[in-house]
Amino acid sequence: MSTIRNEYPRPQFVRKEWLNLNGEWDFAFDDKNRGLKEKWYKEFPQSMKIVVPFAYQTEKSGINDHSFHDVVWYRRTFTVSEDWLDQELILHFGAVDYKSWVYINGELVTFHEGGNTPFSANITPHYNRDRENEIVVRVEDPSEDVTIPRGKQYWHEQSASIFYTRTTGIWQPVWLEPVSEKKIEGVRFTPDIDRGDIIVEYDVPKDTSLTIKTTISFGDQVLVEEESKVLESYIKRSYNLRNRFTDRSNVHDDGWYWTPENPNLFDVNIKLVSEGEVLDSVDTYFGMRKVSIENGKFKLNNKPYFQKLVLDQGYFPGALLTAPTDDDLKGDILVSKEMGFNGARKHQKVEDPRYLYWADKLGFLVWGEMANCSEYSEEAVRRMVTEWVDVVKRDYNHPSLIVWVPLNESWGISRVAYEKQQQDHATSMYYLTKSIDTTRPVLSNEGWEHTISDICGIHNYNSAEHIKKSYETVERAINTEPANRVIYAEGYEYRGEPILITEYGGIAYQVDEQDGWGYSSVKSSEDLIEEYRKVTEAIYHSDILQGFCYTQLTDVEQEINGLLTYNREPKCDLAKIKEINDQK
């Protein structure tokens, strides 16, 4: 059996006491969908074992079955510490694909739809103090439904082309925590570097007997220590951190700002206090960072910033979407930085929060992208919108996350180039995102067939010569048709936004027994470096391009166009890749 994930799953909202529920669970396929009728949530059938949080399709799960099983069940028992029993018990799931019913001791406690976002349930009323307690989870994941936001998960049993093995059921951590009945529900940080302020929004119980105490530190220096009475359930405060100190601004260097080169973070502790007693305490952090677009220039902290991104699909051998260890998430960032990339586009995956934590800590830009549906329907729209709102809410506080991508390459909107309904959907996703996050650029449809976007992202896998000619002028760039796709949908046009090549390269180099494909191919590591040099220098040749995203970081199953193998082994001298990236 596999090693379980032991790190705290929610790094931006940390409480000290928690119980890890990863590890061995009972598991059963329910191919005839008999479980509800037979009440498996009360009497679990004879079953196999699975290692949570790995999907049954993975080796790490201990099952490794790639065939269709659209209904599955999980079960495990647990007990908690005696000193937790005077508090509320909250059960958390990082992500379960796709529909989930959670039972405690035979009673339904919550239902959740969506395979990419977290959910939780207060299980206190159902906890039995006198005996061992039981969790049962029923999951439905319709394998062939292409209107589910599934990203790269294939709707056939065998992976092919750009689509990979499916992930069904629990694929992010499960844990339990004790909390006071009166607790901190949420906190949101919005930096304003121009004023030197951090704006903090709190969600807390409305109770005038409570106070909220906030401590903000930078290293060993305490900058803010404030306690205020809770008069409303929503509290908004602005704290000035600059306090007229020049070295805290960006006048001469990065000061206290967050950048990939200097990922400065401020530590925060928030306490909810009643008559001197601490009811709840949460540790978190933020970065003072600004993303803006001014006069067609992409800027980070008011300075033009050239983005050198790598496409990262977040798949792992033997584990698919679930990183086997925390070090695997951290390692992908470290090796990307080693090659001279300053960020990643997380492609068709809502990534584990631990990845974003390491991006914040290590200094690495991230484009946050939704896992898309493959076909359009009104039901697909509902599913997308519901989950996307939760994605933006979950990841809002991460300074590393700088761009939102709700839709990619017309996936799920295949007629967006000319059909108004699908254009309206793409545009509505743009405005929906802007309505809940005013601080980040948004692309309506990454790659081509944009409606309204803050960045013109173009996917182009053509040769270096073609790229050099195509991006000499703005007019030529926006009139290219990579993959026979127009850059702007019918009725929409370029409005002066920054232009980036957000997919290119895709150079295949086979170094092991894995057969596969890429957008072009080479026969040696030296040729891989040389082809990378040619296509990247073609981008550098352009005066209008403000960044790139190379496809891709690693091989994934049959797609062998990574700079690393699926097992994260370098295919070439990574220092040579860095030399090329460092030219600009």
List the helices and strands and how they pair.
Elements: E1 19-20, E2 23-29, E3 48-52, E4 71-78, E5 88-93, E6 96-97, E7 99-104, E8 107-113, E9 119-122, E10 133-140, E11 169-170, E12 174-179, E13 186-192, E14 197-203, E15 210-218, E16 221-229, E17 234-240, E18 266-274, E19 277-286, E20 291-294, E21 297-300, E22 303-304, E23 307-312, H1 326-338, E24 343-346, H2 353-362, E25 365-369, H3 378-395, E26 401-405, H4 420-436, E27 456-459, H5 464-470, H6 474-478, E28 499-505, E29 507-508, E30 520-521, H7 525-541, E31 545-551, H8 574-581
Helix pairs in contact: 1-2, 3-4, 5-7, 7-8
Can you walk through the features of this model?
This protein is α+β, with helices and mostly antiparallel strands and 584 residues long. Helix content is 16%, strand content 30%. The protein has a seven-stranded parallel sheet with strand order 26-25-24-23-31-28-27. A six-stranded antiparallel sheet has the order 3-2-4-10-7-8, with no helix packed on it. The chain has a four-stranded antiparallel sheet with strand order 1-12-5-9, with no helix packed on it. The two termini are 46 Å apart.
